[in-house]
């Protein structure tokens, strides 16, 4: 049953998380940060993207509380706010792979 609290939670989920996860660069940033905390320059080097692009995406992730920033001397280090986000992304990727395999089987049938 669609209770008012469920509707409110889904609305908040969409506002907070879904919009932040709607960009492949941000997903790659989350996976990179799942390995270990990194600075903007480290992430820019790894993803081969300009630092301003990385900073813009990290700002969105930080505003949605998916990453946290900690000052380390002259630089800022970013880390996942909650490790479970990668578990959720892995589950979604698994579902996507299964759907792709199912569609491929449908196309291959005579």
Kindly summarize this structure in a few lines.
With 110 residues, this protein is an alpha+beta fold. It has five helices and three strands. The radius of gyration is 17 Å and the shape is globular.
Description of the structure:
With about 110 residues, the chain is α+β, with helices and mostly antiparallel strands. The protein has a single domain, classed as Winged helix-like DNA-binding domain superfamily/Winged helix DNA-binding domain (Arc Repressor Mutant, subunit A). It is about 65% helix and about 15% strand. It has five helices and three strands; from the N terminus they run H-H-E-H-H-E-E-H. The protein has a three-stranded antiparallel β-sheet with strand order 1-3-2. The termini are far apart. The mean pLDDT is about 90.
Largest sheet: 3 strands, antiparallel
- The overall pLDDT, averaged over residues, is 92
Q: Choose one word for the global shape.
A: globular
| Helical residues, percent | 55-70%
CATH superfamily grouping:
Winged helix-like DNA-binding domain superfamily/Winged helix DNA-binding domain
Number of helices: 5
Q: By helix and strand content, what is the structural category?
A: alpha+beta
What's the architecture, going by CATH?
Answer: Orthogonal Bundle
Strand line-up in the sheet with most strands: 1-3-2
CATH class: Mainly Alpha
N- and C-termini, Cα separation: 41 Å
Strand content: 5-15%
Number of strands: 3
Q: Tell me the count of domains.
A: 1
Q: CATH topology, which one?
A: Arc Repressor Mutant, subunit A
Gyration radius over CA: 17 Å
**What is the succession of H and E elements?**
HHEHHEEH
* Unreliable parts: none
């Amino acid at each position: 049953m669609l209770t008012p609290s469920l509707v409110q939670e889904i609305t908040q989920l969409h506002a907070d998380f879904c919009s932040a996860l709607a960009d492949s660069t941000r997903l790659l940033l989350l996976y990179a940060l799942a390995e270990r905390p990194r600075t903007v320059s480290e992430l820019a080097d790894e993803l081969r993207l300009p630092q301003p692009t990385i900073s813009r995406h990290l700002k969105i992730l930080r505003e949605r509380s998916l990453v946290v920033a900690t000052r380390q001397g002259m630089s800022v280090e970013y880390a996942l706010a909650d490790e479970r986000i990668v578990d959720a992304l892995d589950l979604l990727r698994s579902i996507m792979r299964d759907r792709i395999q199912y569609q491929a089987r449908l196309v291959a049938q005579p």
